[in-house]
Amino acid sequence: QVQLVESGGGSVQAGGSLRLSCAASGHRYRSYCMGWFRQAPGKEREGVASLDSEGSTLYADSVKGRFTISQDNAKNTLYLEMNSLKPEDTADYYCAATAIWGGPCLWPIKSSGFAYWGQGTRVTVSS
Asked: pLDDT band at residue 24, thresholds of 50, 70 and 90?
């Protein structure tokens, strides 16, 4: 089992920045994919960024160049650095993790492909 706890959400004006954190505990898999998803009101959950156990990253087109996913292995923490935030980035953000049989995360990442989820953290961007 893996437990994930997000933090770092909040309210910010357009153009601002936030950093989300996702602290992981429990079993550590050798090969894994971790992802950040978001869900805006009335919309489906969408994959924002992924990072695999080799350190490869992938991003949704809507956040490329603005968001950066990273991890600190010593702290067992996944991050999502969000810059140049836009009102359309407003959503509940979730981190997720799953074991994989090596190789990169499959993109686009899908909710159904992840076994472990955090509780979510809300990001609100005002214009």
From this structure: very high
